[in-house]
Amino acid sequence: MTEITLKQSTGPAYTRLYAYGAARGENAVPNDDIVGPINSSDEWIRQRTGIITRARANAETNAIDLATEAAREAVERSGVAPEDIDAVIIATISNPKQTPSVSAIVADRIGANPAAAYDVNAACAGFAYAVAQADALIRAGAAHYAVVIGAEKLSDIVDPTDRSISFLLADGAGAAVVGPSDFPGIGPTVWGSDGSKAELVGMNATLTEFRDGKAPWPTLRQEGPSVFRWAVWEMVKVARRALEAAGITPADLAAFVPHQANLRIVDEFAKQLKLPDTVVVGHDIETTGNTSAASIPLATHRLLEEHPELSGGLALQIGFGAGLVFGAQVVVLP
Amino acid sequence: MALTNDEVLAGLAELITDETGISADEVALEKSFTDDLDIDSISMMTIVVNAEEKFGVTIPDDEVKNLKTVGDAVTFITSHQA
């Protein structure tokens, strides 16, 4: 019998992010509009979360629409032809229809049909997970250009009377195009999970319980203080490992973009990381709210709009959330 | 050597002042963290983590809910010091 050697694909040595795109829910909802059912005040919400307004979408707008808008901007800015995109990865937890995937529809809408397309369920770490996958797929030769998107319409899964998380949540999508590079543009991803803490944040019921009348429409809940403790003091260790894996120190960073969970988390995280004053911290939560998987690319998009001089600099991004899951990497800003 | 109640109270008051700006004089054993000192759950967690480091104790999340007053925290810390 003749020996046959199988071919295996290989790709370019390096990848980078080419461009970002963003879309936010059409309505800036102020605290005063939501304080009634939680017996709260504008001051209470600002003090605990930093949020002044959150972006919430119209009833007829869904996560697919938001993802499409963000992806179109990223693709246009990247200069990559839509037909050359052969992977579309969307991180989302809020699309009310489990199948077909959000990503297949978005791939078609942006002109990337028949790209490989799939959704990632990694909550607020979803974008970092998707970047890790795009980077690996391209370097392995499984794709040439990828669009990674975090897209959420969380306002569909909030309870107006919930004081744990609902008032933080918002709608939006952030996208980035990933492709081959002449230089290392995406550092090693430090990622993982801890399912023993699955109950700390997530949905409060299943769809079958809702169907059988045993539970109201499932919405998000969290054990706020426990999540805060994990999100800062445990995630600081992950952030440090990502810096170490990339072979850099905090002083080498131009920017730090953590998941926009809550301003108190963002600020305490930056403090614990002991970042030099030269590092710009991504802030988007004040007027966007917490958009889960979309928050890192939305914050990065805003950062680059407000500080175009950061282009070419290094940014540490870290996502963390329901699972529990986490993912962090250092990237070169486009 | 294990710290006395007074020493733990003084150390805890320092941590509370650092986090909230509340004067150390106001921190007394009978004061409730939420009702008297108006410390929210996120600040409470920050104080807890800093207290763990300062006093070399472990304060699990489930235990934090039982620490209603400054005295509760002082008692927990003194009885759990290595």
UniProtKB/TrEMBL annotation, chain B:
Compartments it resides in: Cytoplasm
Main location: cytoplasm
InterPro entries assigned: ACP, ACP-like_sf, PP-bd_ACP
Pfam family, one: PP-binding
Superkingdom: Bacteria
Alphabetized PROSITE patterns for the sequence: CARRIER
Keywords: Cytoplasm, Fatty acid biosynthesis, Fatty acid metabolism, Lipid biosynthesis, Lipid metabolism, Phosphopantetheine, Phosphoprotein
Post-translational events: 4'-phosphopantetheine is transferred from CoA to a specific serine of apo-ACP by AcpS. This modification is essential for activity because fatty acids are bound in thioester linkage to the sulfhydryl of the prosthetic group.
Keyword set includes Flavoprotein: no
Residue ranges of domain Carrier in the record: 3-81
Sites bearing O-(pantetheine 4'-phosphoryl)serine, chain numbering: 41
Function in brief: Carrier of the growing fatty acid chain in fatty acid biosynthesis.
Protein name: Acyl carrier protein
Organism listed in the record: Microbacterium horticulturae
Gene it is expressed from: acpP
